[in-house]
Amino acid sequence: DKTFKFSVHDIDEAVMIPKLMERLHKVAPQICIECYAIPRRDVERELAAGSIDFALDVPLFASPQLRSRQIITDRYVCVIRAGHPQVNSNLTLETYLELEHIHVSSRRGGIGHVDLALDRLGRRRNIQLRMKNHIAAPQVVAATDLALTIPRSVANLTSLNVQELPFNVETVNQFLYWHKTADRDQANIWMRNLLTGVLV
């Protein structure tokens, strides 16, 4: 009987938790899971205090107090609604740039991996809508002609038309973090191994 507490963002929660709970119901139905959105600046302190057991995030933390393991590698794809008037079978770069796009970010400004990749090509996309939530954005796509570039694992949760990107973008790498004091904790090790088996 144990409760594991995670700091996860909406996109990781949507991808990880269904798989984790499906596995737990088979092997350890007494385990409870709690998820929180801890600001990145507070994650190390919360892990040290034992307020959370794990954090799932991009490779940001270089602290000697933390341990990490890469457990998700994902790639970006573009999703559009079925029957989109501008896209036939294969999405070309020119068509991609002609589309109006949704950009998802919790920050008020700045660009992400997709726009950095386009910038290297000397190109720019037309962002019509900026949103903070990866899970809400596909609902907008389903109701409009807007395009959304998201990790494949999130696209798989929708019924939208998935198109391969016509340019290269860095993969999305997610790491599981825990505090060094829990490195040899048997329950912590068990959960790390379980997550690795479920997500890798």
Quick one: overall form?
elongated
Taking pLDDT < 50 over at least 5 consecutive residues as the criterion, the unreliable ranges are none
Query: Radius of gyration over alpha carbons?
Result: 19 Å
Strand content bin: 25-35%
What's the SSE pattern?
A: EHEHEEEHEHEHEHEEH
Structural class: alpha/beta
Query: How many strands, which pairing sense, and closed or not: the largest β-sheet?
Result: 5 strands, mixed
Number of DSSP E strands: 10
Number of helical elements: 7
How far apart, in Å, are the first and last alpha carbons? 26 Å
User: Would you tell me the overall average pLDDT?
Assistant: 92
**Sheet with the most strands: spatial strand order:** 2-1-3-10-4
Q: Helical residue percent?
A: 25-40%
What key phrases describe this protein's structure?
200 residues; alpha/beta; five-stranded mixed sheet; 7 helices; 10 strands
What's this entry about, in short?
This protein is of the alpha/beta class.
Blueprint (SSEs and pairs):
Layout: E1 3-7, H1 10-27, E2 32-36, H2 40-49, E3 54-57, E4 66-74, E5 76-80, H3 93-98, E6 100-104, H4 113-120, E7 126-131, H5 137-143, E8 147-151, H6 152-155, E9 161-164, E10 172-179, H7 186-199
Parallel strand pairs: 1-2, 1-3, 6-7, 6-8
Antiparallel strand pairs: 3-10, 4-10, 5-8, 5-9
Helix pairs in contact: 1-7
Description:
The model has no long low-confidence stretch (mean pLDDT 92). The strands form 2 sheets. The chain has a 5-stranded mixed beta sheet with strand order 2-1-3-10-4. Strand 6, helix 4 (113-120) and strand 7 (126-131) form a beta-alpha-beta unit. It contains 7 helices and 10 strands. With 200 residues, the chain is an alpha/beta fold.
